[in-house]
Structures are given as C-alpha cells and as structure tokens.
Design brief:
The protein is mainly alpha-helical. 60% of the residues lie in helices and 4% in strands.
Amino acid sequence: MAPQGSRAELEFGGPLGAAALMLLLPATMFHLLLVARSGPARLLGPPPYLPELEELWSPWALLLCLTWLGLQAALYLLPARKVAEGQELKDKSRLRYPINGFQALVLTALLVGLGVSAGLPLSALPEMLLPLAFAATLTAFIFSLLLYLKALVAPASALAPGGNSGNPIYDFFLGRELNPRICSFDFKYFCELRPGLIGWVLINLALLMQEAELRGSPSLAMWLVNGFQLLYVGDALWHEEAVLTTMDIIHDGFGFMLAFGDLAWVPFTYSLQAQFLLYHPEPLGLPLASVICLINAVGYYIFRGANSQKNTFRKNPSDPRVADLETISTATGRRLLVSGWWGMVRHPNYLGDLIMALAWSLPCGVSHLLPYFYLLYFTALLVHREARDEQQCLQKYGLAWHAYCRRVPYRIVPYIY
C-alpha cells in the first residue's frame, strides 16, 4: 500500500520541495524586511546588505515574542462567548473550539492602549522588526520540531491525510498530526488566527505611530493601509468559527508550513505596505483615496457576501437567505451551490480577497513593485490553493463535481480564469 501522504508529496514537490520552501520562505521574509527600509526598495534586486548575526539575534526580541504568544494563549483560555464543534474526525468524534478571537483582539487593543498611555514605546517596535522576525522564525522551527516529536506517539486516527508520508523532512514541513492538543488547548486553531493576525495589525499600528513621530502626523496612505487591514483582521476574528471548515483545519497537519506562516510570515510580510510607507512616504489626494476605498469596499463586499452565503448554507440549507438557491446533489448527501455568489465563479471569496489585496497596495503608489508583493504572492497562493481544492472536491464528489464545473466554468475571475 502506498503511504498516505504520497499524493501530497507530488503536490508540494516532495521532500526536496519541502526542504527548499523551509529555506526560501524565511529568506524571502528577511529580504522583504531589508529592502522595504532601503532607498531603492527593489523587490527583485539584491538586499542592501546581509545582516550580521548580532543584528538578528536579540534575547529581548525572543522574550518579547514569547511574551506575546503567552498573552494570546492566556486570552484564548478566557471564557468564550461560544464553543463550536469542528468537523467529524476519523473516529467519528468532534473537537470543541472556543470562539473568542474577536474578544482577544479587543482585549489586546485595550491592553496596548493602557500600555501606550503609561509610556510603552510602541513606536520603537519598527526598529526591532529584524530581530523579532528572527525570533519568530526560531520559535516556529523549535515549535515544529516539538509538534513532530509529539506526533510520533499520536494514534493513527490523529494523523493528517497528507503529513504521514514516512519522510521526516516532508512530514516535518507539512505536519503529521491533524489537531495537536494538550488538554483542550488546540495549537493549530490557536495559531491560525490569533498571534499572527493580531500581531500584524499591532505592527501596522507601531509603524503608523512612528510615522507620526517622524512627520508630525500619519499620512493618508498609512491611515488607509491600517484601516483596510484592521477591517480584514477584525472580520476574520469576528467570523472565527468559519475557519473550522477550511482546508488548514480539516485537512492539513500542523507542521512548519503552518507554524511559520502563522507566527512569522503573516505579521512580518503582510505588514509590508505599512513598512514601505514609513520609509517611502507617498502623497495621496482625497479623490484617489476615495477610489481606493471604493475598490476595497467592492472586494470586501464580494469576500464577505460569498463567505457568509457559504457558511449559512453549510449550517442550515433551509435558511430563508439561501433556501431558494439552486444546488446539485452529490453521492455524499451534501449539495453544491450553483447560483448566488457560488454560481458566478467557484471561489468568489478568493476574488474578493484579491481585489482587497490590490486596494491595500494602491496607497503606496505605482513607482515601486515592492508593495505589490502581497498581491503577487496571494495570487499564486490562491491559485495553488484552488488547485488543491479542486482535487479534494473531485475525490469527494466525483461525477457531481464534474457537473458543477460545467455549470460554473470559471475558477476565480469571471471570463478570465
């Protein structure tokens, strides 16, 4: 019998691809951090210099990183407004998850506000981005190793479909165990939205405050980037329960791919536009700012509308908001939407995501490619994720999926892709 993860190895390039990504992703993150503060700010050029280890390593940065994780873990353990059940597992059980991510965001904001009013030098945070990113990367590597060792003694029913290939490099990268927990504390669910997303908007805020110190007040472009991305993070945490049906939670193991992505990649690369604006101020008039706000609003409308429609249908297909939508029956008993947002393209939420990504980059102007890295990266990520979704759905729904694809021929962008 072929190893359970053999198909996934082809998907990610196997052990060689996993090893390459474990080097390439941190290197890309550090490259972006270095070039964002350089004069030329060239995305495709070499970094202005290679930092010495003394510039990367800081015990204070590591302590700050671990303190941040500890704070978010403490907020995770607070009483939740709701406890939700996840998808049914191999052993027919369902795990329970606290829905208190938005509460954690609000409490973090209150604590930061109190800290700043008491003299916390938040505006000094941008000067620590390199050592903080290094500390987060180191934490992700050690955490992934501990997760891998924990998975070695996990029962077979607890292993992820793709991270059980038998190759230690590949399994370390993808993650062997599907839902690693200690008691009720779910490590993957905790990392998915809490420390990285909230850390992202905190870094944005620190960059805004430092710009205010340097130039007297934050620029309109900086306000737009902070506002757009805070809306996105707030939305994700307000609708936290929806993450329980994503591929990250129900299919992928928890290894370096997700640990590094959640703890390091998200806060330090998704804040790239704000980093760029601190070192390369961009004048922005109200007419253009209004157009950019409209673009972001359109993207958010599509993103939120599509996700809400999907989540409502999954919870209760008889809900009046979705009861009249046309569907296709499948052999599994589930039905596929072929009207509404999901009759326009197969992944309308991805389309909304990409439109918002464009709006986040436009305040930075068009003289540099660097601020558009997120849009380019996210396009590649969503196209790859869409291909994984297609394969999963084809295996799950068979002929019904072929019928759905005939009804909805476009994947992400109508009449283009």
